[in-house]
């Protein structure tokens, strides 16, 4: 095969990335490659909501790669959010299910000041089953940090991540990665259009939390994502955690199709969304690796070998990740017998060693003991797993920065009486997106922490290095930056020691935990 010279690739990339010209009209009006949009102009920022980046994935386009949005005539109103993608009800902000498939829209927030600003593209969490870009107000990041913020809807659950061989006939892509392809389509929209909003298409940071972090990790290892982003911030999902294989994904997909009475694509596409949502029980709806060029191998293997998009990375988790899940599973205190039973069922022959390292006597509330064990090791959210990923990145030579959000006084997402939620999974989000939890406010010290985090995230987006310089580049476990309020709240810590990572490595085992955590 004849290789294309690097200079030619660079020239071609530049031509393809030529952005839409800025519209000379009012500041609330912008010309995209598909037509004019009119957003809101506020005192300190501009907001554009509900901009289509792909054609609605309905009818015959259900379970197909996204197609570019169609052009429109006149000026499109961009002052209201579009519908969230179809998803089941959840107690966390979505009390009613949504059955809308026409949902491939994004939102743009810019500061009022002009310039070729860094761009930050946000992938929301929710286990790739729930979530909504409209929940995340990018105002603080945009105004205080001087960046353009883009939040993205992408197909969820059964519509975004169902893998079935019947869906691949005549298609070029492995089924089960539709959500991933949506995200890449949104990034291509950013490359074509963001200059018209004052952003720099050559300086894009992809960041996401939980499932959004898992997807960010996958994009780092996805060849078609080359050149679509230039820095990455995966939050609270280890890039070293394995994702689905083709066999695992299609076995689950075949079981689903049988359960809803279908054996071919036509039958599946004819089913109502309600039927699909109610029948979908996939516990691990994450990218499918090893089946095609979208994700040709496990991300961990790509990072270990250096076969990925090398760029500056921030990667970290929270101090008490799994308390959120444990509190939901055990709303009432548990007994010593239940605690021991958890250890023996999960760790088998290693249970005695685990119970000796995490003795019940250390935990007045034994639910905290379970959460501590699972936050240290053995889940995609675990600290030792994040350290594993940080080491992989560091060994490949990229600038990487590790953090651990540690504010144990953060406002709770779910307030369980008598339970200390601590720095639970997703607790850092309201410090980057104030207002995420309606009715809650940060105190003065927490607001200062929020200011510092926004400064870290946006300076990294601008330069590839978080400022000020107190955050060291990761080279060892002692280089992780703890993020907490108050004096000495922001400082380096040794998370390997605190989370007993050497102990877990000595066991040489992985617990039997494969859940939808994240």
TrEMBL record:
Keyword Signal: yes
Molecular-function annotations in GO: hydrolase activity
Swiss-Prot/TrEMBL keywords: Hydrolase, Signal
Pfam families: COesterase (PF00135)
Annotated ranges, domain Carboxylesterase type B: 29-504
Annotated EC: 3.1.1.-
Signal peptide: 1-22
Keyword Transmembrane helix on entry: no
InterPro entries named in the record: AB_hydrolase_fold, CarbesteraseB, Carboxylesterase_B_AS, Type-B_Carboxylest/Lipase
Record-stated family: Belongs to the type-B carboxylesterase/lipase family.
Protein's recorded name: Carboxylic ester hydrolase
Organism expressing this protein natively: Nonomuraea gerenzanensis
């Amino acid at each position: 095969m004849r290789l294309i010279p690097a200079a030619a690739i660079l020239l071609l990339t530049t031509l393809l990335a030529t952005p839409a010209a800025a519209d000379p009209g009012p500041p609330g009006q912008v010309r995209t490659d598909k037509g004019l949009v009119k957003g809101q102009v506020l005192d300190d920022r501009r907001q554009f909501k509900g901009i289509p980046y792909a054609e609605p994935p309905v009818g015959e386009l259900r379970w197909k790669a996204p197609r570019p949005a169609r052009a429109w005539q006149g000026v499109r109103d961009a002052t209201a959010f579009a519908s969230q993608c179809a998803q089941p009800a959840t107690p966390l902000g979505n009390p009613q299910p949504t059955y809308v498939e026409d949902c491939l829209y994004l939102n743009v927030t810019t500061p009022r000041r002009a310039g070729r600003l860094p761009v930050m593209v946000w992938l929301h969490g929710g286990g790739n089953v729930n979530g909504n870009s409209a929940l995340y107000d990018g105002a603080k990041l945009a105004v205080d940090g001087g960046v353009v913020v883009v939040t993205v809807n992408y197909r969820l659950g059964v519509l975004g991540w169902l893998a079935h061989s019947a869906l691949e006939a005549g298609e070029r892509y492995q089924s089960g990665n539709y959500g991933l392809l949506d995200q890449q389509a949104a990034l291509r929209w950013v490359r074509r259009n963001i200059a018209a909003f004052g952003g720099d298409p050559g300086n894009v940071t992809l960041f996401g939390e939980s499932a959004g972090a898992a997807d960010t990790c996958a994009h780092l290892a996805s060849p078609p994502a080359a050149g679509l982003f230039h820095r990455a911030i995966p939050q609270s999902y280890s890039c070293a955690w394995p994702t689905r294989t083709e066999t695992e994904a299609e076995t689950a997909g075949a079981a689903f199709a049988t359960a809803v009475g279908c054996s071919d694509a036509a039958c599946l596409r004819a089913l109502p969304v309600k039927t699909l949502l109610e029948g979908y029980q996939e516990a691990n709806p994450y990218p499918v690796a090893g089946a095609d060029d979208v994700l040709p191998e496990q991300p961990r293997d790509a990072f270990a070998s250096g076969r990925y998009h090398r760029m500056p990375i921030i990667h970290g988790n929270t101090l008490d990740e799994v308390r959120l899940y444990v509190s939901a599973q055990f709303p009432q205190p548990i007994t010593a017998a239940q605690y021991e039973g958890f250890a023996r069922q999960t760790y088998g022959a290693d249970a005695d060693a685990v119970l000796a390292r995490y003795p019940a006597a250390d935990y007045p509330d034994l639910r905290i003991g379970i959460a501590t064990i699972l936050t240290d090791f053995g889940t995609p959210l675990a600290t030792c797993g994040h350290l594993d990923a940080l080491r992989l990145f560091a060994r490949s030579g990229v600038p990487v920065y590790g953090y651990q959000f540690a504010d144990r006084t953060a406002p709770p997402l779910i307030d369980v009486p008598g339970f200390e939620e601590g720095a639970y999974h997703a607790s850092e989000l309201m410090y980057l997106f104030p207002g995420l939890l309606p009715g809650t406010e940060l105190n003065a010290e927490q607001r200062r922490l929020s200011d510092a985090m926004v400064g870290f995230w946006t300076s990294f987006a601008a330069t590839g290095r978080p400022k000020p310089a107190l955050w060291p580049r990761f080279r060892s476990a002692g280089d992780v930056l703890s993020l907490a309020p108050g004096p000495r709240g922001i400082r380096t810590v040794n998370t390997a020691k605190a989370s007993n990572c050497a102990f877990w490595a000595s066991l040489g085992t992985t617990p039997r935990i494969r859940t939808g955590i994240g």
